[in-house]
Amino acid sequence: MKKVLITGATGGLGSAVAHYLKNKSLEQPIAVLVRDGKSEKALKFKEEGFEIRVADYNDPSALTEAFTGIDILYFVSGSDIAKRDVQHKNVVEAAKSAGIDHILYTSVSLNHLSPEAPLYGAMKIHMDTEDWIKAAGLKYTFLRHNLYSEIIPMFLGPKEQLMASKVVYLPTGEGKTAFVPREELAEIGANVLADAAIHENKIYELNGTDKVTFAQVAKYLSEITGEKISYISPEVREFESTMKANGVPAEYIGMMTIFGLGIADGVFDAPNSDLKKLLGRSSLPMVKFLSQIYK
Ligand SMILES: NC(=O)c1ccc[n+]([C@@H]2O[C@H](COP(=O)([O-])OP(=O)(O)OC[C@H]3O[C@@H](n4cnc5c(N)ncnc54)[C@H](OP(=O)(O)O)[C@@H]3O)[C@@H](O)[C@H]2O)c1
Prior knowledge:
By secondary structure, the chain is α/β, with parallel strands linked by helices. Helix content is about 45%, strand content about 15%. The chain has a domain at about 5-145 and about 180-210 and about 270-280: Rossmann fold. It has helices spanning about 10-20, 40-45, 60-65, 85-100, 120-135, 150-155, 160-165, 180-195, 215-225, 235-245, 250-265, 275-280, 285-295; strands at about 5, 30-35, 50-55, 70-75, 100-110, 140-145, 165-170, 200-205, 230. Strands 3-2-1-4-5-6-8 form a seven-stranded parallel β-sheet, with helices on both faces. Strands 7-9 form a two-stranded parallel sheet. It is globular and about 55 Å long. The structure holds NADP nicotinamide-adenine-dinucleotide phosphate (NAP).
């Protein structure tokens, strides 16, 4: 039986993939990669019967050791945008030297993205990582994720905040996005891992069934809350100064701006999706996803 290692296991996606796979009761040995083997989350994984491997993406020799004896790697992209370049190279090189056979990589699904786009810098790493995995001669499955639906409440804040402002205020124009709940992407990851051989050297575009604009999000939120929620798409400068005046940290404003402009430009308005085939159903309708948070 091939041994699987799931990275990013202490995070939202990796943790859910590990648990979905375990719940399939395949008797497939499952290891998880953590940065701190003594953390509460690592100890909980151990208690649940997962094997623990410890390494940081910044540490090539620890990665090679952690990957030894592993056949299939579920590689969760790093969360430190400034350092992902080196980290992802380390992971691919360590996978190659440790003799890993097949990498599933959590990439991104893009409709289009020009090198001049503000989002290009943050997204290019996914294209590069796909190239490095192929160049290393490893079997691959690229799980190209659209934006998580969870990004919407991250941008809009909790219900109390929305009820105070009654406005969706983002520079997203009329751009549509095929958001997907992170949980569904995790379920798909586990489905693919459970039958990995049939997914070798495949690329999957994982886009949600509902494609929505933020004007539609505001409309759904009005229905859900029973209050009139309006949508305003400001000019970038106005957006940045309003956010600054409201005490939003600069780093957060920067992220919302580049993603907002990308959304406005249709970067995430993906034309095709392999989601239904791999999930076995359509993704949760956006209005239902929002109801879980704002009802
Ligand atoms: N498609 C989208 O909309 C979207 C949105 C957000 C993020 N993402 C990407 O998807 C990934 C997974 O999402 P998520 O929600 O699960 O993120 P998350 O909850 O922040 O989890 C990130 C995981 O990566 C681990 N990690 C980060 N840096 C590492 C390093 N240097 N070495 C080893 N492990 C490291 C973290 O470990 P620790 O617990 O030790 O920090 C954590 O387990 C993110 O890392 C990011 O690349 C995509």
